[in-house]
């Protein structure tokens, strides 16, 4: 296969190789008219010229590659949106994303960092599958951007969901519908989830602003899966009528799905007898429940875009203050006023 050279483009366009080089390498020169620049690009396309990326990276000190190191992000239901956001920005800027999934293995992480640093990628994003506080691995460049995690020691550009505000908007939805006995189906403490603490803070904030005295008995913990949600909701729904909640804010959509099942087994209907709000807006769960679940969306796509924009210098970030990405409410059909006998 004969390699097309820059000289071939020059011959086709009727210009010098220096002119071709300046045009194709994006060198700003007022000496080259827009018409000539267009003629060079058309000639390059016509002869099938492909620039030598290695030579170009040596000239520009850019590889046009961004490394994205993740823990198990590539196998979670939210990974696609987060990676799509990062990849869309990279593609818009002419960069290629190199994804390395380490499965939280320290040795694999070190190997990935050594490889990416050796390849002199233009930027690195360090991502987690869920909102975590992390010890930054040795070798991670100072200008690397943290995605869905924050550094324990601070001092790193980072983006995470605004979990507390998400809890606020979820519980306000229930208070606005007239509910006063609102339960929080939370994740067990053994999972040590940052989101659990922040969402609970949001829950308490709204109860306080509504003048509702928190009932410790309505804060129940379970494994944050459908089975855990069902077990926790079952405990609450079998309480005496005067203590039973009329609404539930669930740590995630899977627990909300379990709450639906518990309500059904107790002969209750969502939302006529029990209103439910979830968190995550998980694909193939929230919108598919019957009735479709009102929930709070995790902004994975937006976080992915933000991280890549910072990594490529398209926006500024304060390394001392993580960027909190808004978590909007997604209203569907799982919330209504409480049953008449429970209304104030």
From TrEMBL:
Task: State the name under which the record lists this protein.
Answer: LacI family DNA-binding transcriptional regulator
Please indicate if the UniProt record lists Protein transport as a keyword. Answer: no
Query: What residue stretches are annotated with the HTH lacI-type domain?
Result: 4-60
Keywords, ordered alphabetically: DNA-binding, Repressor, Transcription, Transcription regulation
Q: Which PANTHER family match?
A: HTH-TYPE TRANSCRIPTIONAL REPRESSOR PURR-RELATED, LACI-RELATED TRANSCRIPTIONAL REPRESSOR
Q: Does the keyword Cell wall biogenesis/degradation apply?
A: no
Q: Which GO terms describe its molecular function?
A: DNA binding
Which InterPro entries does the protein's record reference?
Answer: HTH_LacI, LacI/GalR-like_sensor, Lambda_DNA-bd_dom_sf, Peripla_BP_I
């Amino acid at each position: 296969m004969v390699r097309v050279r820059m000289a071939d483009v020059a011959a086709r366009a009727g210009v010098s190789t220096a002119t071709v080089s300046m045009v194709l390498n994006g060198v700003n020169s007022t000496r080259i008219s827009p018409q000539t620049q267009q003629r060079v690009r058309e000639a390059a396309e016509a002869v099938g010229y492909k620039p030598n990326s290695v030579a170009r990276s040596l000239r520009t000190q850019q590889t046009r590659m961004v490394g994205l190191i993740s823990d198990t992000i590539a196998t979670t239901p939210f990974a696609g949106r987060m990676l799509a956001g990062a990849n869309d920005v990279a593609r818009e800027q002419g960069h290629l994303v190199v994804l390395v999934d380490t499965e939280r293995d320290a040795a694999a992480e070190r190997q990935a960092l050594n490889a990416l640093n050796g390849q002199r990628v233009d930027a690195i994003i360090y991502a987690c599958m869920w909102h975590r506080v992390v010890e930054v691995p040795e070798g991670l460049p100072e200008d690397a951007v943290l995605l869905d995690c924050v550094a324990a020691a601070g001092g790193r550009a980072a983006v995470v969901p605004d979990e507390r505000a998400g809890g606020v908007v979820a519980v306000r939805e229930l208070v606005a519908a007239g509910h006063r006995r609102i339960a929080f189906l939370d994740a067990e403490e053994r999972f040590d989830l940052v989101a659990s603490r922040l969402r609970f803070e949001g829950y308490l904030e709204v109860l306080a602003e509504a003048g509702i005295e928190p009932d410790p008995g309505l804060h129940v913990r379970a494994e944050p899966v459908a089975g855990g949600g069902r077990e926790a909701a079952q405990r609450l729904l079998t309480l005496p009528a005067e203590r039973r909640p009329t609404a539930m804010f669930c740590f995630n959509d899977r627990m909300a799905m379990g709450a639906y099942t518990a309500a059904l087994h107790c002969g209750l209907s969502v939302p006529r007898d029990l209103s439910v709000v979830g968190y995550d807006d998980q694909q193939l769960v929230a919108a598919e429940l019957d009735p479709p679940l009102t929930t709070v969306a995790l902004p994975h796509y937006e976080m992915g875009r933000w991280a890549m924009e910072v990594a490529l210098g398209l926006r500024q970030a304060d390394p001392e203050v993580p960027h909190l990405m808004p978590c909007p409410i997604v209203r569907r059909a799982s919330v209504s006023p409480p049953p008449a006998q429970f209304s104030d």
